[in-house]
Amino acid sequence: MTRPPGSGPGDPSVRADVLADTAVRALRAEALLSPKPGLVDARGSGAHDDMDLPLLLASAEALRPTFRAVADTAKRLVFGAELREELGRLGRAGDQAMSRATGEVNTHRGALWALGLLVAAIAGGAGDERCAAGGAAGLAALPDQWIPAGQASHGELVRRRYGTGGARGEAEDAFPHVIEVALPRLRRARADGRSEEVARLDALLAVMSLLNDTCVLHRGGRAGLRVVQLGASHVLAEGGAGTDRGRSALLELDHRLRGLRLSPGGSGDLLAAALFLDMLPWPGRRLRAELEVTACRR
Ligand SMILES: CC(C)(COP(=O)(O)OP(=O)(O)OC[C@H]1O[C@@H](n2cnc3c(N)ncnc32)[C@H](O[C@H]2O[C@H](COP(=O)(O)OP(=O)(O)OP(=O)(O)O)[C@@H](O)[C@H]2O)[C@@H]1O)[C@@H](O)C(=O)NCCC(=O)NCCS
Ligand SMILES: Nc1ncnc2[nH]cnc12
């Protein structure tokens, strides 16, 4: 069985527009998923007073040209400092496109960072999810001499105060909450016969139960993070989003997070990254019988 050229990841000619389209679809799927505790969803603004669903969807669409440019660039340049710096330039331009689309609201900065690095790794030839995460980690760890000095981000303030790695640490560690937490939970829930919506909600809750989310830490400190992590663990212990007890615990957690103004935005971003990897037609998945080993090219 052969694949048409450019039809999927692992194929060096995988099309940039396919990667960009999949990244935007993943962002849309995360935004639309409901009910998500504390996050913007189809029901409303969650713990945010400056975001809603149309804004998140507009933000996702505004990032499409950036994802495409990231993929084109990663096909053109070999892994190294020049590629890292070019991705930094594109990422900062993407941040500005997001800000223009949202009136300066940070809707998807963490998602652009995670998905941008994964798109680059796949466009460069990563042939499976782990290779993509590993390639993204290698890119994240390279220095970018053009990072502008400026006001410290919320993530930076939290890093200084609590010593957590945040979005940068997650990428440098090869996205453990995507590869080891979200994707296995998503697939286990599907294998157990759960609906797609429930599988995605359980994957989100699994990430929330473990992630040191700088968005939560910035708004609620360590106490806020405990509320999010223990609350998500409790929903899963009650059976997850697909059981009556789990669903009512989820709605209680949502009520609590909105009351405390706590938003697990980093978990939302990492769910989008997991959905992106899950939506791609990896050769190892489609040709499992024929391919025993899928090697990392990068
Ligand atoms: C490396 C960068 C991502 C910058 O990171 P940094 O931590 O310095 O900057 P932040 O501006 O704080 O953005 C990081 C966002 O990452 C998400 N996140 C948080 N924790 C984690 C985690 N543990 N793992 C992964 N991801 C995480 C989180 O995103 C969500 O939160 C958003 C809202 O957060 P915030 O801005 O704090 O807003 P509010 O609380 O709403 O503010 P107020 O209303 O209270 O004022 C939410 O929308 C989610 O997106 C963090 O926000 C990266 O940007 C960078 O260096 N880029 C340079 C370009 C580049 O090199 N790109 C290459 C690839 S294209
Ligand atoms: N659904 C969502 N609500 C708020 N912030 C987010 N960041 C990423 N996804 C989000």
Give the helices and strands, then pairings.
Layout: H1 16-32, H2 53-62, H3 64-76, H4 81-102, H5 109-123, H6 129-141, H7 154-162, H8 166-172, H9 176-191, H10 196-208, H11 214-237, H12 244-260, H13 265-279, H14 283-286
The structure holds ligand LTSJ6FE6 and adenine (ADE).
Could you characterize the architecture of this molecule?
The chain has 298 residues and is an all-alpha fold. It has one domain: Triphosphoribosyl-dephospho-CoA protein, CATH 1.10.4200. The chain is built from 14 helices and no strands. The protein has helices at residues 16-32, 53-62, 64-76, 81-102, 109-123, 129-141, 154-162, 166-172, 176-191, 196-208, 214-237, 244-260, 265-279, 283-286. 48% of the residues are buried. Mean pLDDT is 92; it is low at 1-5 and 286-294. It binds ligand LTSJ6FE6 and adenine (ADE). Adenine binds at residues 30-31, 36, 39-40, 46, 48, 51, 56, 108, 111, 263, 265, 268-269. Ligand LTSJ6FE6 binds next to helix 4, helix 5, helix 7, helix 8 and helix 11. It comes from Nonomuraea terrae. Pfam families: CitG. Its EC number is 2.4.2.52.
Small-molecule binders here are: ligand LTSJ6FE6, adenine
Tell me the number of helical segments per DSSP (H or I, 4 or more residues long): 14
Which structural class do the helices and strands define?
A: mainly alpha
Instruction: Give the SSE order as H and E letters.
Output: HHHHHHHHHHHHHH
Major beta-sheet overview: none
- Rounded to the nearest angstrom, the distance between the terminal CA atoms is 25 Å
Number of beta-strand segments: 0
Portion of residues within helices: 55-70%
Radius of gyration: 18 Å
The CATH topology annotation reads as: Triphosphoribosyl-dephospho-CoA protein
